[in-house]
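Whiteboard transcription, Tuesday session. T.W. wrote the structure tokens on the left side:
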């Protein structure tokens, strides 16, 4: 297949328009507190496995960047945990609606950066939307049992409490869905999330941060970008309460 034909195919695919819709630049920051993007690490390029072309570059997170994210996330949790669950569900609902609006460009990016088929890219974004819908309903169903007590005139009440800062590490083969499965549920439960996305699909993670920022300024959505070695060096000593590890 000739070079001109390749260019025409990619033009018809619309990846450049998709990148623009998702707010992606030639160089993007790899650290985010939800409302603030920054990074002080090395510049890492992302190439498409589809045609080998450069998609964009991302600045990696340093240990200092990571510490800033964790400090901000820990402080945010103390406020977010007191927000009523239905209000937390409203945040998830707005995020899900924005995913609906941007399903096509995000699905194209998943396909182009990760290498799966276009329909699978769209399907992965649909899974994000579906878990948001589920989580919104769950936000009004965080029920607890009322249990009889042996003491006269007393009952025992079961009440669920937020855990804290939730750490999520996701693999390249599901660069956005796995994060959403965990994040949407954690949010309605009152937990903030720190996400270390795959270094093989960093622009998908940047895009998700941008989508969150379209509708929300509450600092509950954090992410860092670094390689696996640095990730374990940064994260393991400081992630607390719960650590969700998905893939490698």
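and on the right, the sequence the group agreed on:
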């Amino acid at each position: 297949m000739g070079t001109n034909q390749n260019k025409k195919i990619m033009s018809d695919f619309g990846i450049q328009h998709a990148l623009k819709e998702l707010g992606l630049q030639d160089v993007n920051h790899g650290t985010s507190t939800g409302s603030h993007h920054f990074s002080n690490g090395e510049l890492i390029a992302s190439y498409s496995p589809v045609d080998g072309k450069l998609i964009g570059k991302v600045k990696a997170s340093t240990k200092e960047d990571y510490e800033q994210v964790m400090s901000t996330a820990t402080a945010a949790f103390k406020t977010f945990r007191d927000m009523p669950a239905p209000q937390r569900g409203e945040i998830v609902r707005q995020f899900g609606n924005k995913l609906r609006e941007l399903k096509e460009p995000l699905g194209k990016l998943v396909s182009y950066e990760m290498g799966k088929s276009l329909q699978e890219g769209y399907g992965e974004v649909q899974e994000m939307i579906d878990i948001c819908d589920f989580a919104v309903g769950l936000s009004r169903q965080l029920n607890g049992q009322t249990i009889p007590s042996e003491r006269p005139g007393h009952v025992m009440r079961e009440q669920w409490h937020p855990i804290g800062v939730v750490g999520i590490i996701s693999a390249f083969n599901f660069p956005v869905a796995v994060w959403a499965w965990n994040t949407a549920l954690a949010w309605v439960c009152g937990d903030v999330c720190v996400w270390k996305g795959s270094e093989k699909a960093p622009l998908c993670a940047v895009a998700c941060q941008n989508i969150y920022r379209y509708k929300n300024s509450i600092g509950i959505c954090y992410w860092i970008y670094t390689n696996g070695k640095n990730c374990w060096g940064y994260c393991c000593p400081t992630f607390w309460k719960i650590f969700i590890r998905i893939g490698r």
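Someone added at the bottom: The domain at 12-141+160-245 is CATH 3.40.605.10 (Aldehyde Dehydrogenase; Chain A, domain 1).
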